[in-house]
Amino acid sequence: MTGKGRTFYIAGAGISGLTLALALAKFGANVTVLEHNPAVSEVGAGLQISPNARRILDSLGLEEAIAANSLEPTGIDLYPPRAKRPLVTLELGAIMRERFGAPYAVMHRADLADALYKATGRFANIDILFGVRSWDTVPSARGISLSVEDASGQTRSLRGDALIGADGVHSKPAPACSAAHPPPARPRRSAHPPALRRPRRPHRPRPRLGPLRSQLPRRLLSAAPPPADQYRPLRRRLRSRRTPRPRRPSPAAPPPRPRPGHPRRRRPKLDPRPLYTVDSPSWHQGNIGLIGDAAHAMLPFRARGAAMGIEDAAVLAPLLINEPNAEAAFAKFEALRRPRVERVAKVSGSNGKIFHLPRPLSTARNLVIAAQGPRGHLKRLSWLYGHDVQP
Length: 391
Description:
Layout: E1 7-11, H1 15-26, E2 30-34, E3 46-49, H2 51-59, H3 63-69, E4 75-78, E5 88-91, H4 94-100, E6 105-108, H5 109-120, E7 126-129, E8 134-140, E9 143-149, E10 155-160, E11 162-165, H6 174-179, H7 194-197, E12 206-208, E13 222-224, H8 228-241, E14 271-273, E15 275-277, E16 284-285, E17 288-290, H9 293-296, H10 305-322, H11 326-355, H12 361-372, H13 376-380, H14 382-385
Parallel strand pairs: 1-2, 1-11, 2-7, 11-17
Antiparallel strand pairs: 3-6, 4-5, 8-9, 9-10, 12-15, 13-14, 16-17
């Protein structure tokens, strides 16, 4: 079925949003992407593109761009603490192509976002609005209406068939989807239950702090250099609290010379930033739906967050074209995707605990990993890497 005559709006020009835009455009649908930033940008460093995600990207015409900007490792070395030799080397490379029909690659997030953005230029039916200041939605039975304030301050009135939120953990459309499905009266235990603990604020991503094993055994910590305008005021405040000490005059002395073979290195100033997880009680409401981190942000210990967003786009695009309306497409999409996404999220959370086990449990963990050998992960994760989705 062709998508000509249908119009879809996507909030967020990230990896999930741009992948969905390409998948919808292949069916002939008109796609408009709303992006708050003035240009395509991705926060983070590297990501792993496993065969299940690579097959989708290749089918969208990104095979050459990814191959030119990525690395196909032959294996992953797993080192125990303070070990000089790896415990085991997990085989990748040719064996991944042989078993799963696509390579296992690593690349920078910004490079993938840039490749996706350049690929959208091949489609005249994709429009990306950068620098969007704000927008409001009015859902209806026949579609959705948007009032968008663009970068110049002008207000545009737009109409389409559906709005898809692909704008990350702080997604703007997410509260509307969660509010229509209130949480149960008694909260259940989960890795990230903001909607269950705060019924009045049903969609609120929860920060995860750690891994300080002795103090915060279940939490995570992401550290990155802070922006200069954030670090300097903090430094001035800390200095103002110190008690001044008198300084005695001393003769000028030359700075100490570094020892041979040990160049002096300044430690980078790190700013702890939380890692967010999202477990939305519902991924859709009416003609508004969620994909990627906006619906199911997960911990990074399986490194499958981007791959799940890519899979989301590949599954949702044909449903939006073939189903009679967007609401039916979103409902079927959630029924198809939620079991798999929850399984991946569960594995990611379990890996986080396993990776940070204290002794003697860590010794038993190492023995199990070594016993599985360099190809044990291929059998254990075949359900993940072998999953096939055709956009």
